[in-house]
Write a sequence for this structure.
């Protein structure tokens, strides 16, 4: 952990509004509460999302603005201080100019000098947009040759069994987020058009919170990095 004279910084480069909340909202809230400076990139505005509200009140024209606002609200819930959109069309990140996208992220890393860079694993991302932004961010991180550490976000508690994916427990950081589940739930609710259909999100707080896990899992992106503790990204 760094000394208090230099503020710790985290850069997350994701694909869609809601990736940050649904996948690792507890981690953002935890580090924000510790004073970490957080920047989030959303490559797209999620305008091709299948969920249009319940009952539907959005269309392809109104969706981008609605989801942008929802993401801004979610960032407020989680303590994410800076939000950047790359203005790539939803579901087309894999067709974006890879060199230009990588260069853009590399410039951001050089400018911000984050201690931690978070993105999707380019093969385990689970959606073409996720894999594409993960691939570009991984390449950008390597090129920037920065001081920081790279981690891949993972889904639920899948990394309780990393050997299924060719990794070991030494590659996994398990962050305890149990003190930050209220903020995570608030961020789910901020993404209203995506979560209205999920009844559990709107149950009384106590019951809804029981649906959220106490840990979030991150995979080391630079395995040769110095050995760190297994419950903290910094
Ligand atoms: Zn996504």
């Amino acid at each position: 952990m760094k000394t208090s004279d230099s503020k710790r910084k985290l850069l997350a480069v994701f694909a869609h509004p809601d990736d940050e909340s649904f996948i690792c909202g507890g981690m953002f809230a935890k580090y924000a509460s510790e004073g970490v400076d957080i920047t989030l990139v959303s490559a797209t505005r999620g305008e091709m999302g299948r969920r249009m509200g319940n009952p539907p009140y959005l269309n392809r024209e109104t969706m981008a603005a609605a989801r942008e606002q929802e993401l801004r609200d979610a960032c407020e819930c989680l303590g994410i201080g800076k939000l950047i959109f790359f203005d790539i069309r939803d579901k087309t990140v894999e067709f974006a100019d890879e060199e230009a996208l990588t260069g853009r992220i590399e410039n951001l890393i050089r400018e911000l000098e984050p201690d931690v860079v978070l993105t999707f694993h380019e093969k385990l991302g689970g959606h073409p947009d996720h894999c594409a932004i993960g691939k570009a961010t991984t390449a950008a991180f390597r090129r920037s040759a920065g001081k920081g550490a790279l981690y891949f976000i993972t889904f639920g508690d899948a990394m309780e069994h990393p050997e299924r994916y060719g990794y070991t427990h030494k590659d996994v950081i398990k962050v305890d987020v149990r003190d930050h589940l209220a903020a995570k739930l608030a961020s789910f609710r901020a993404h209203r058009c995506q979560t209205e259909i999920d009844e559990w999100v709107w149950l009384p707080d106590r019951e809804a919170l029981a649906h959220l896990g106490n840990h979030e899992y991150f995979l080391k992106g630079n395995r040769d990095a110095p050995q760190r503790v297994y419950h903290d990204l910094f």
Notes: The CA atoms of residues 12 and 40 lie 5 Å apart.
